[in-house]
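so my prof wants the structure for this chain in the tokens format not the other one, which i didnt know existed until like an hour ago. anyway here's the sequence
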Amino acid sequence: MAKAPANPKAFPTLALETVLTQRVNGPVCGVDEAGRGPWAGPVSAAAVILNPDDLPPGIDDSKALTEKRRAALEPEIKARAVAWGVGFASVEEIEELNILHATGLAMCRAIEALSVQPIAALVDGNYRFKLPCEIQTVVGGDGLSLSIAAASILAKTARDRLMIELDAEYPGYGFAGHKGYNAPVHQAALKTLGPCPAHRRSWGPIKALLEEA
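here's what i got, hopefully its the right format
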């Protein structure tokens, strides 16, 4: 018996943007974040309003792309989009507000950085952040919406660049490689060097190290 072919991967489209744009009768952006889970570094967010007549080919969820492909798509998205913006919330803001509210702050900053202000936003996930426009949450949005996927790429590349800068500022932790996430080299460096100012000290593993010291 012949084996049924595997279902081909579905790529994000502008279907959600089209419906929402028609409903609100104005610009719609996609919003996504990067860096909610790491032990170190800020959380970033991006907002993108795509031009449906000038779409860079190959946009997909940033997690489905290689670092090289993300780097190639970033300038293409910025050059062809109607508007794009990136925002950060610092480690200090994460500690003060908690990661959820800090993520919302980064998203607000990304939207406010847009040269064209949207009437509505498609936001990845299911949490209704308080943003400066109407929002529609989309679970798995970075795999469904081209605007959210584009935002995921810009948020990821912007944060990765900043983590490389932090690696130069605080050498020894390997930030350029693991971008602040849990990794064996990161764990080893923390035990040897202790946390640096870029670490999220309220995070369980970091807090435990501080309590042991």
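also thought this was worth mentioning. The CA atoms of residues 18 and 28 lie 9 Å apart.
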